[in-house]
Amino acid sequence: MERPRTLALFVATVVILAWVPVWGASSEGTEEISFGMSTSLTGPAAQLGLNMRIGVSAAFDEANRSGGVHGRKLRLISLDDGYEPSRTAPNMHELIDVHEVLAVIGNVGTPTAVAAIPIANAKKTALFGAYTGAGALRKTPADRYVINYRASYAEETAAMVDALVNEGGVRVDEIAFFTQRDAYGDAGYIGGITALKRHGLTDDTSVVHGRYERNTTAVENGLADILGVKTPARVVIMVGAYEPCAAFIKLAREFDYHPIFLNVSFVGSAPLSRSLGSDGDGVIITQVVPHFQTDLPITEAYREAIGGYDGGSAPCFGSLEGYIAGRILILALQDISEMPTRETVIDALEGMGKFDIGLGHELELGSGNHQACHGVWPTVIRNGRVVPFAWSELASLVGGTGP
To answer: 317 with 246, same domain?
Structure first.
């Protein structure tokens, strides 16, 4: 639906605030607003950070080619944290205190977000659209300076469990977990356990749970834990990054273990599929965006924007999420006719209410609602491609699994 937009011209007035205005001039003399991102640009999760940066940058580039927002160009400053929280904290301070960014957008990862949240709150600077579904970013009442686009990991794993039980006829004692040993893995695991309890699980200690250390591919012990029970699970829900999850699946197949593997969105669908090769067929991945090849208005705009950005980039789920986050932020900025401040950005995001960016259903943000979207879209790897999947197809997959 169309929302009213203020079209008044900007009057160059310096508003005295408790912090220095986060704007400057571009090389062409046009006013410029800076935003920051601390993300993984190197290491085992690098593709996730690179894709988010591409998506946000494509949205900014699209807006800048049309004159920016109220005549102001948007700039993204990205710093590499290697998916390590010890590097995120100094990055956040540099972005906020040195580069004086208006907001931080699209940070990747749960452990890194845990390090970023207290800094965003203390510095009163928005941490928006982070690539994580962890509960730490979804408190009740919500942190004023933490606002999300995507569904939570709990919603993703709950969608998996509900479909496995209702559509696939899987029993709660036939589901195991393989997770990263940190806040990210814990968030997905707890969400899955909560969903299993809704379906009759009485003892969560009976659920088989293998783990691995972040930024490693040391998955052998995790697989041994899952295979070490009398009857190995028919389903493994995975909450990890693409390299260790691919290593786990390949090793499982070497041991002739062929359960249904389900991954949450953070795994990175394209790099997971590439890493798995022929071992990827039948691996399910939930997404928090629709498939990038669908004909929705937002995906059509995304494909055009991504094709015109920096020589063109291949479409993928990660950059689509970054593009959507960028589009939402731009939509909020359009409601601020004067020079935006860190506080007015928060006010604009909270004031969006129900809005439509072309996802096929309305999103919503408000002072008591800091998560715009709750949608979960299932996909599956087939012949090396990640394609849409219907939960009703689980019944046929379950029938073909077993140790």
So the answer is: no
